[in-house]
Amino acid sequence: MFGLHYRLERKAIGLVLAIIGVSSIGGLVEIAPLFTIHQTVEDAPNMRVYTPLEVAGRNIYIREGCYACHSQMIRTLRDEVERYGPYSLAVESKYDHPMLWGSKRTGPDIARLGGKYSDAWHVAHLINPRDVVKESIMPGYPWLARTSLASEDLGLHLKALRRVGVPYTDEMIEHASNDAYGQSAPDSSAAEGVTKRYGEATNVRAFDGNAGRLTEMDALVAYLQILGRLTDAATKPVASAEK
Amino acid sequence: MIGQLTKNERQNALAILIAMAVGGLVMTIGGRNSLLGVHGGLVLMIAVVGIFAMTATLKLPDPAEDRLNAYYDDPTKVGIIISMVWAVAGLFVGDWIAWLLVFPDLTFDAAWASFGRLRPVHTSGVIFGFGGNALIATSFYVVQRTCRARLPDQVTPWFVLFGYNLFCVIAATGYLMGVTQSKEYAEPEWYADLWLVVVWVVYFLLYLRTLSRRKEPHIYVANWYYMAFILVVAVLHIVNNLAVPVSFGSEKAYSAFSGVQDAMTQWWYGHNAVAFFLTAGFLGMLYYYLPVRAGRPIYSYRMSIISFWGITFFYMWAGSHHLHYTALPQWVQTLGMTFSVMLLVPSWASAGNALMTLNGAWDKVRDDATLRFMFVAAVFYGLSTFEGSFMAIRAVNSLSHYTDWTVGHVHAGALGWVAMITFGAIYASVPWLWKQDRMYSAKLVEVHFWLAVAGTLIYVFAMWNSGIIQGLMWRTYNDSGTLAYSFIESLVAMRPYYIARAIGGLLFLLGALVGCYNIWMTIRMAPRESAKADRPEPGAAGAPVLQPGE
Question: Which residues bind heme b 2; high-spin (chain B) (predicted)?
Fold first, then answer.
């Protein structure tokens, strides 16, 4: 074996090919089957896609690096389930390009944050976290409430997401900008289209408390309020196991 | 330095700069409504400055032919200086954000100054800026000497070095503006990623071309590691960054993978960025600088082979240990855990090989802080690979994951191993490169050494404490069977450790500043005549000089 190597290390191309070959095996065995084994991701027929406003909010979450301190993945451990809620299922991040499972909890997990607090709490918390949680070490994001949301190209965003596998319809893509506005302006004519396209349960509210203007705060709060609520697969009792 | 380039090479460099300016212009126009345009402007500006500098030298005569009788070390010199600049910048930002966790209001009401945007500036700054430049610079140095061959030309190394730094600058400025795809250690967006692929392919070809010119029949073990670093990082980078841009005028792209597949791909990348960027590359550094500095041959040729192939094979399976108890299928978690534990064998073979090499040179370890940097690096390499295998065990991971323990583990590796071996290699190289007998001040190397060791120990102990306390508080139940602590109580308990960590980081930063001063003063010392022996072999293949006997 060492004799073989003694010859191999005299050939640059041989070494290159050997390195590529030896290093490829692990990834191929562990990653490729995740795309082909059906049980990897559970079925959740009632799961909905993110609305354009939630996509925009998610992009703000990514832009500000929130994932560096907050995970969105509740592990299958008793204390985590009791602290944060039912453990996360693979299907719940099926439309997450990229996933935001996180790796560190400087702050708490927020996989099931949606609906836990009011919009007003989120707005106050994002403007200055220490106004609502005295000991918090989270930075404030006051400029979110001052900055208008760039929503003109949301159709292109939905289109790109469709290209990587999220089932947005032509109609959703066409009305993306309008739907983003409508979701945070419940009394406007644009609001109706949002529930028509994304379901009656969709949150349609002035998330930042001001229906007149579409801000980044609207988008981020809309996103935070949908976390863990795209499907109820994780909270439903497992019916199939009984049968 | 430009005077060393031939007329032909200067024309080639000018052509590359003009192409870069055109690329920058296209980005500026295409991305005028987005942050892509800002980066286009940056590229254009750098290219125009380069074009002016290059045009001014086009009329210079060709350099003397005897340059071919020496190794081409200018890119290594510049690379080492750039690496130290990134070290200071990256460590400073790291320590700054450590203080942010103590004083969260230090953000000046500015988006760019918040923790989430600065954190990738720190991680990319130290990993890619400091570490990457040190790897590129030392790889040029090592490959020439172990092959007894000069780099094949004088433009490609500069393209690799400056092209790579352009990537780093685009990455860091992008984070400040909020351009990130959120994948840890792979945050840069699609256009920066594509550019890095170009640079990396050129780097790989340059390495192969130099190897093909070698006058030694065998490829020395340091080069195996540098080559694995270049090759596997390319594969990881391309697969993990597959994405669809919103448009060619937008900086934003959406990852090709989602959910569980994306998580597995990301941590296959993330863990092997540690393996092949922060381990394989720096092992290449260790395998050259440690034996040379100690004046001893590598202890065991066979251990070198076993650890090299063990690391190349086992590491690529280990990524899934970042996803224990998550929605990742359990069979993948179990495979990741198993291989992580097995990984200890090649890791300790490397660390043991390095330490055994020092047998017979322990007096030098005592007296020479440069060699002591390398020795401590090998010790921390052994310790943190043991800790890593331990933390990959599912039961341990249930406590350590999501806590500061992980942060402590990463810094035991990054400060104790990666930074220490780099400082050792830099302190060894600088006098050789600038034709000096020694560093400006051996005392200051000593000061740097103790600041670095103290900083690392304080940092790591603080994070061990906070991480384990955090993990235990999250899972402690009271007598009535409910959780004993709220999340915020665990956060409050972290404060003293966060202060200690920030102080440890500050010591480490101070050490790097002392190092910068020392390096600067060494460069300014009067040069002596170049060493006669340190030059490429002009004739036929000779006996392997650093090759362990077999």
Answer: 409
Tell me how far apart the alpha carbons of residues B289 and B63 are, in angstroms, rounded to a whole number.
Answer: 31
One CATH from 1.20.210.10, 3.40.50.920, 3.40.309.10, 1.20.1300.10 for B73-529: 1.20.210.10
- Please give the single-letter amino acid code of residue B229: F
Among positive and negative, which fits the CA dihedral B219, B221, B222, B228?
positive
Residue with tokens 């690391």: B311
Annotate A72-97 with DSSP letters as a single string. Answer: ----S-HHHHHHH-SPPPGGGGTT-S
> Which of A80-111 are b and which e, b meaning 16 or more Cβ less than 10 Å from the residue's Cβ?
beebbbbbbbbbbbbbbbbbbbbbbbbbbbbb
Residues A174-194 have pLDDT tens digits of 999 999 999 999 999 999 999
Q: Cite the DSSP H helix spans in B315-419.
A: 330-342, 344-357, 362-367, 369-391, 394-400, 404-411
Consecutive 10-residue averages of pLDDT for chain A (243 residues): 90 96 95 93 93 98 97 97 96 97 97 97 98 97 96 96 97 97 95 95 94 94 97 76 43
CB-based contact B474 A83, cutoff 8 Å: yes
Q: What is the share, in percent, of chain B residues with pLDDT greater than 90? A: 92
pLDDT of res. A241: 46
Per domain, the residue ranges of chain B are: 1-58, 73-529
Partners of residue A89 in chain B, C-beta under 8 Å: 327
Contact B305/A at CB under 8 A:
yes
For tokens 């400073």, name the residue.
B92
Selection from B226, B277, B217 nearest residue B417 by Cα: B277
pTM recorded for the entire structure: 0.95
- Are B392 and B318 spatial neighbours (Cβ–Cβ below 8 Å)? yes
A227 inside 8 A of chain B by CB:
no
**Is residue A131 less than 8 Å (CB to CB) from chain B?**
no
DSSP H helices, B218-295, are 221-240, 259-272, 281-294
Return all residues near B280 (Cβ < 8 A) that are at least 6 apart. B225, B226, B228, B229, B232, B311, B312
Distances (CA, A) of A150 to A59, A119, B28: 11, 21, 19
Helix (H, G, I), strand (E, B) or coil at B483: strand
**Structure letter (DSSP) for residue B245:** E
The encoded tokens of residue B26 equal: 């296209």
The shortest C-alpha distance from A194 to chain B (Å) reads 22
Could you tell me if B255 lies within 8 Å of chain A, comparing CB atoms?
yes
| C-alpha span between B134 and A42 (Å, rounded) | 46
**H/E stretch holding B175:** helix B156-177
Residue with tokens 């009984």: A242
